[in-house]
Amino acid sequence: MDILTIDSWYILLPAFILFLLALFIGTRKKNYHSMQYFTVITLVIYLLAVIHLVFFPIEVYPGGYESTGPLWLAILKEIEFIPVLTIDIPTFVLNIIMLIPFGVYLPLLNDKVDTVRKAAKYGFFLSLTIELLQLTIEVIVGSGRTSDVNDLIANTLGAALGFLIIKKLVKIKLFKVMVSKLSLAKSA
């Protein structure tokens, strides 16, 4: 029984090409300038990089979930529920770093994300989505990925930290001008 490995390029490269087509076809009537296109394109590249890091390669084991008990029990075995005590410091730090750019992008995309709490909420929900998808992939194909509550904490902190960084930078006049040009939100 051979393991089938799905590399990210087979999925992410076509997804990026389709995104570019949709972007340029869908925004013909909008008055975006080049810096706003730069924001959208770099955001998508960043999100594709996150997808690459957290999901790929996907290793499909023949048979996927092997019934050794109820499915719900298998799912529970794939989740690390205990926060902080089971923390792996390097992984925790890398998870914080991974979502810092997301926190930076948030106020550029939506002027309603105006507090660290809102940025943390978006970071939490992005992280929860990632963890649930990792769990689903693990249960369906046996990919070897687990879901960890520490990842939720670290990713949420990363989004909040990114938001704080951009908010501090816009207090500097040079950065405020640059951010206003990059922003798709009404006010940056």
Number of strands: 4
Q: SSE order in H/E notation?
A: EHHEHEHHEHH
Q: Mean pLDDT, rounded to whole units?
A: 86
Spatial order of the strands in the main sheet?
1-2
The helix tally amounts to: 7
Residues in helix, %:
55-70%
Q: Sheet bearing the most strands, described?
A: 2 strands, antiparallel
What key attributes describe this structure?
single chain; 188 residues; mainly alpha; two-stranded antiparallel ribbon; two-stranded parallel sheet; 4 strands; 5% strand; flat
Description:
With 188 residues, this protein is mostly helical. The protein has one domain. The chain has helices spanning 9-26, 34-55, 71-77, 89-109, 116-141, 149-169, 173-182; strands at 4-6, 58-60, 79-80, 147-148. The chain has a two-stranded antiparallel sheet with strand order 1-2. A two-stranded parallel ribbon has the order 3-4. Helix 1 (9-26) runs antiparallel to helix 2 (34-55) and helix 4 (89-109) crosses helix 6.
Topology:
Layout: E1 4-6, H1 9-26, H2 34-55, E2 58-60, H3 71-77, E3 79-80, H4 89-109, H5 116-141, E4 147-148, H6 149-169, H7 173-182
Parallel strand pairs: 3-4
Antiparallel strand pairs: 1-2
Quick synopsis:
This protein has 188 residues and is mainly α. 66% of the residues lie in helices and 5% in strands.
